[in-house]
Amino acid sequence: MTDITRRNFLKSAGVMALAVAAAGVLSGCDSRSKNPVMADVKVEYWRKNRYLGDQKVSNSNNDEYDETVSVVKSGKVKKEQLQNLGKVMVNTGYKLSDSTATEFDVDWTQEPPVAKVWMEL
């Protein structure tokens, strides 16, 4: 075993500390860890009518219940993001067609993207 001097020990300890710090910095360079891209999605409330076909839920103002929510691009609208859902249910008497739904599909081919929430009596 060789004798190590204080100077050599401090040099090697410094180099090791630098190597550990560099490894820690580089471990944060994952290309998949980017922030998600968000997009504004227009939410529309619709109902099916056996005589008149699909109709947008509204009173006198056709866009009264429409709202815009921010969604991760290519994602779905979550039920808790819907601010006007309660107002639609109280004012019109409609309820969700699928009462267990927690997410709603978005049509990303439209500009702006649109999510249709289907209601029923």
TrEMBL record:
Residues 1-27 form the signal peptide. It comes from the Bacteria. Keywords: Signal. InterPro entries: TAT_signal, TAT_signal_bac_arc. The keyword Transferase does not apply. This is Twin-arginine translocation signal domain-containing protein. It comes from Faecalibacterium prausnitzii.
